[in-house]
Automatic annotation (TrEMBL):
Annotated organism of origin: Nepenthes gracilis (Slender pitcher plant)
GO molecular function: triose-phosphate isomerase activity
Lineage of source species: Eukaryota, Viridiplantae, Streptophyta, Embryophyta, Tracheophyta
Name of the molecule in the record: Triose-phosphate isomerase
Family the UniProt entry places it in: Belongs to the triosephosphate isomerase family.
PANTHER family: OS01G0841600 PROTEIN, TRIOSEPHOSPHATE ISOMERASE
Any Pfam family hit: TIM
Database matches in SUPFAM superfamilies: Triosephosphate isomerase (TIM)
Gene Ontology terms: cellular component: cytosol
Self-association state and partner proteins as the record states: Homodimer.
Keyword Signal: no
One GO-annotated biological process of the protein: glycolytic process
Length: 249
């Protein structure tokens, strides 16, 4: 069976109740390819998860942007995977580069989070990607392999994992990877999965691209054989997000 295209919208730390309602109305009124062609996941800030879930069309899903590394307790400011389950939130984004760089989340910590969320039944979009400095020193694949290995060492079932290749130099910069650059890394990452996990996992795991995807560049990226969808930041707050969803067909 082929890999179903997946488009995630990461709203990051943006939005008011009014803006959330407006974006959700736009999404709800849109005609997009059916759910068996494209899986759409909307990731608002924690405080809007319930509101978005209550208003959003039923063929789109909701993701949190992070969760704690184990069960709840004395961890001020954190949200546990159990709480996401309790709210009926099926997905979580983990290891986003903003959390890795601004909040010092290590590969091991991200790997532990991925394993814990999966163990609670929350599906994971796990982000990996290199900085500009790392790309320029030709260590892109090495960096991504180390990040992915920290996840692979901690999980045994990849069914509920999507990998998001998000080059840090492309996130929020307007500097998108070319389709050739994206395909090259996605293909290498799939090969890494084949060699280090299993051919089956390599074949079935979706690898989505993130980094300045917009309504104009999505089609060419989506045409690449190893690009199985997108994680979208800035453009997910705009009507062009619908064009990105439609690039699945
Ligand atoms: C992201 O935050 O995951 C992202 C890819 O952001 P942007 O699309 O704005 O580059």
């Amino acid at each position: 069976m082929g890999r179903k295209f997946l488009v995630g919208g990461n709203w990051k730390c943006n939005g008011t109740i009014e803006e959330v309602k407006k974006i959700v109305t736009t999404l709800n009124e849109a005609e997009v390819p059916p759910e068996d062609v494209v899986e759409v996941i909307i990731s608002p800030p924690f405080v809007f998860l319930t509101l978005v879930k209550s208003l959003l069309r039923l063929d789109f899903y909701v993701a949190a942007q992070n969760c704690w590394v184990r069960n709840g307790g004395a961890f001020t400011g954190e949200i546990s995977a159990e709480m996401l389950v309790n709210l009926g939130i099926p997905w979580v984004i983990l290891g986003h580069s903003e959390r890795r760089s601004l909040l010092n989340e290590t590969n091991e910590f991200v790997g532990d989070k991925v394993a814990y969320a999966l163990s609670r039944g929350v599906k994971v979009i796990a982000c990996v990607g290199e900085t500009l400095e790392q790309r320029e020193s030709d260590s892109t694949m090495e960096v991504i392999a180390v990040q992915t290995k920290a996840i692979a060492e901690r999980i045994s079932n990849w069914d509920n994992v999507v990998l998001a290749y998000e080059p840090v130099w492309a996130i929020g910069t307007g500097k998108v990877a070319t389709p050739i650059q994206a395909q090259e890394i996605h293909c290498e990452l799939r090969k890494w999965l084949k060699d280090n996990v299993s051919p089956e996992v390599a074949e079935s795991t979706r690898i989505i691209y993130g980094g300045s995807v917009n309504g104009s560049n999505c089609k060419d990226l989506a045409a690449q054989p190893d690009v199985d969808g997108f994680l979208v930041g800035g453009a997910s707050l705009k009507p062009e997000f619908l064009d990105i969803i439609k690039s699945a067909t």
